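step: validate -> pass
step: tokenize input -> pass
step: predict -> running
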Amino acid sequence: MEILAIIPVRGGSKGIPGKNIKQLAGKPLLAYTVEASLGSKYITRTIVSTESTEIKTVAESLGAEVMDRPLYLAQDETKTAPVLLYVVSELEKQGYSPDVVVLLQATCPLRNTKELDEAIELFLNKQKDGIDSVFAAKNIGTTHSKWRKSPADSPKTFYECLFDYRNRPRRQDKEKHYDLLQETGATYIIKTDVMKRVKDFIGEKPELYLDGSALDIDNPEDFDVAAEIIKKRRMKGLE
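step: predict -> pass
step: emit ->
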């Protein structure tokens, strides 16, 4: 089975200039994700998609393949799915057709090879159940009711009830509580044919890989937090 890892990294980061190759505990941020992918016993190819010559140089020095990304796919408003589809399309023109695509976000440096392989194993083991994708998530609490806030781009703010509010369970009814789960952004695994059909990196029948250690770096403070965690891991011989 051909399992392709794609690491999309743009050069233009407004929040933190040069974020993807900024030094984090002695390595470029990108290095942690490339190393996790190259160390995997399941991933057969690791490709960094970028429009930046500087990022390309760093990625190649880390041992990753690099596919040049056209500028129209490197804009602030560019979504991730079209980038993945572009990489797969270009590889297919070269005669390479992956069975599975793994999206790895470079801004999640705490995801290591062990966790990556666990997520892939979950995906492989769930094939018999019809699962077509797996993504990393973390538990952010529990609730006894299920409400969903309106989308950010909605003209009005509203909350939609996702259960029969007339039969609202009591807080004491532990078995009625729901886990509150949030995507970490670290790892997404999907069958290639499903990705092409839904044009997304989460399929129609996904499974969650619970990852409690994930951190998505979005601001300078996140760099400091990640650096401290990595240093502690190294002291314990875990990094």
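step: describe -> The first helix runs from residue 29 to 38.
step: cleanup -> pass
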